[in-house]
Amino acid sequence: MNFSDKNITEPIAVFDSGVGGISVLRALLREMPNENYWYYGDSANAPYGTKRLEEVRALTISHVDSFISKGAKAVVVACNTATSAAVRLLRQKYPDVPIIGIEPALKPAALSGNHPNVIVMATPMTIREEKFHNLLERYMDVAHIISLPCPGLMEYIEQGTIRGAELEQFLIKLFEPFDKEKLDAVVLGCTHYPFVSRELKKILGGSVRLFDGGPGTARETKRRLANAGLLNPGQTRGTIQFDNSSPSKEKQELCMKLLDAPMEED
Ligand code: DGL
Predict the structure, then answer these.
(1) Residues sharing a CB contact under 8 Å with residue 152, sequence separation 6 or more, in sequence order
(2) Calpha distance 147→118 (Å, rounded)
(3) Which residues are catalytic?
(4) Is it the case that residue 16 has pLDDT exceeding 60?
(5) Structure confidence at residue 206 (pLDDT)
(6) What's the pLDDT band for 1 if we cut at 50, 70, 90?
(7) 17 within ligand 1 shell (Cβ under 6 A)
(8) Which tens digits make up the pLDDT trace of 209-247?
(9) Integer Rg of the chain from CA
(10) What does the DSSP assignment read for 93-156?
(11) End-to-end CA distance of the chain
(12) Model confidence pLDDT, tens digit, residues 55-77
């Protein structure tokens, strides 16, 4: 099929290693409520952030192949880890399909004050990859930036735990080495983390600002669709289909719960 023939009512595929990308889906829904969405979580293979690059690359490419072959008009890779592993290759493979990735929202955090102290929370792979190193280099002169790999954190959200004593202890331990009094901003560099933003705020204090890349990714998706003439002009609310490589009633229920869960910026 020629891409210009694509039906503008076809869904936007939103992909993550699990349920984290729902934080991006929420931002997309705020930006474009009338679009149809197809959310796919690869929970059977999660976590991605502690895997080898080649493995995450292969998984991401094979999922995106399937979204495009099934007619998705655009793909949002709502996973920082999968974006750093595969988005460049995907754009080479599908030059005519809008493919939008997500990266840690370091820019607004680094520019949020006068040489602010910023911590970037992300998966070990995101922090290791070249894409993040290039991002760091761009802002290291305007902010004091510390990268904080958070292995083990996404698993809480994946199990549906977004508050409670155990999670709180995990977060306290994670931030133990840092002087919270001097901290200005925390970047939520994994799409699972916005779901624990309330717990984070409790630990970090009210003056620390949290930065989530979801809203910027949603705005970028809208721009890209508009440029490609693919925005759905429909005036009614679109549909959302949830799929998961680990299909179960519990995952389905968790997806619905996270779609409405209270988050710090809401
Ligand atoms: N949600 C993913 C991200 O944004 C990572 C979680 C995982 O390790 O699979 O990086």
Answers:
(1) 170
(2) 9
(3) 79, 190
(4) yes
(5) 87
(6) very low
(7) yes
(8) 999 999 999 999 999 999 999 999 989 999 999 999 998
(9) 18
(10) H-TTS-EE-----HHHHHTSSSS-EEEEEE-HHHHHSHHHHHHHHHHTTTSEEEEEE-TTHHHH
(11) 40
(12) 999 999 999 999 999 999 999 99
| Cα separation, 194 vs 63, whole angstroms | 24
Reduce the DSSP state of residue 76 to 3 states and report it.
Answer: strand
Q: Which of 191, 212, 246 to mutate to test the pocket of ligand 1 (most atoms within 8 A of CB)?
A: 191
How close is the Cα of 123 to the center of ligand 1, in Å? 6
Residue pair 135/104 in contact (Cβ under 8 Å)? The answer is yes
156: pLDDT strictly greater than 80: yes
Rounded to whole angstroms, how far apart are CA atoms 106 and 138?
10
For residue 104 and ligand 1, the question of a CB distance below 6 A is answered with: no
| Residues 211/186, Cβ–Cβ less than 8 Å | yes
Rounded to two decimals, the pTM is 0.96
**196-217 pLDDT per residue, tens:** 999 999 999 989 999 999 999 9
In short, whether 110's Cβ falls inside 6 Å of ligand 1 is: no
Position in ligand 1 atom list of the atom nearest CA 102: 4
Based on DSSP, count helices (H) and strands (E) in the chain, helices before strands: 11, 9
Is the confidence at residue 109, as pLDDT, over 60?
A: yes
Ligand 1, residue 16: give the atom nearest the CA: 1
Please say whether the beta carbons of 127 and 187 come within 8 A: no
pLDDT value of position 69: 97
Going from the Cα of 145 to the center of ligand 1, the distance in angstroms, rounded, reads: 21
Instruction: Give me ligand 1 centre to Cα 208, in Å.
Output: 23
Q: Is 154 in the pocket of ligand 1 (CB under 6 A)?
A: yes
Residue 82 alpha carbon to ligand 1 centre in Å: 7
